[in-house]
Amino acid sequence: xxxxxxxxxxxxxxxxxxxxxxxxxxxxxxxxxxxxxxxxxxxxxxxxxxxxxxxxxxxxxxxxxxxxxxxxxxxxxxxxxxxxxxxxxxxxxxxxxxxxxxxxxxxxxxxxxxxxxxxxxxxxxxxxxxxxxxxxxxxxxxxxx
Length: 145
What we know:
Order of helices and strands: HHHHHH
Distance between the termini: 34 Å
Radius of gyration: 21 Å
Number of strands: 0
Largest sheet: none
Shape: elongated
Number of helices: 6
Helix content: over 70%
């Protein structure tokens, strides 16, 4: 994305000729990076949160809270998948103005990131339910590769 924007600025101000497709490509790349970044941030636990009440809970209440949060997130992710697929199907015959790409390709990041977020959510739920077994199994499988 940075390369596209820098080349657009160079062409516009140095060569006095604008790239007609660069703004649109940069916009779509930003959208894709945002959705993929949200999935990475969720997996790493980097989303901001307020833990004023959570920090005062006991260990069992904290576990229940984490399970509830992961279940609610999974519900939300499945909504993202469902309506993302519907929307991508809805725009399947449209094309982007400059790049002439089918819009379903651009909007396919919505259900794809929802699927990635769901997989992360399921893995986190498994970590919470049986932390030792799941983590040991992952370490064993990674070690065998």
